[in-house]
Amino acid sequence: xxxxxxxxxxxxxxxxxxxxxxxxxxxxxxxxxxxxxxxxxxxxxxxxxxxxxxxxxxxxxxxxxxxxxxxxxxxxxxxxxxxxxxxxxxxxxxxxxxxxxxxxxxxxxxxxxxxx
Length: 116
Prior knowledge:
Blueprint: E1 4-10, E2 23-30, E3 35-44, E4 47-60, E5 63-71, E6 78-91, E7 94-98, E8 107-109
Antiparallel strand pairs: 1-2, 1-8, 2-3, 3-4, 4-5, 5-6, 6-7, 7-8
């Protein structure tokens, strides 16, 4: 059900954004053997930035677990952790993550046409 790439978009505000307010898009591609390839574009009042990343995932319907790094309160130690989200499929090509530290904005499956 998760296979392929999904995209989430937050649109630019209609008025001048306040400091710290961001918008943009991100894409998650669920690959074989638990690999998650991510692409992010974030914009704010100071401009835009983009980055790619690769992490691990586990899919145990209806839960998606994402690998992450937790930083200790003193900022000295990093610990690998799994963050778990409940996935609700609104349609076969539209999902929402719930009960986790991710945006509840919907994710839409990317079309299968080749990227340019």
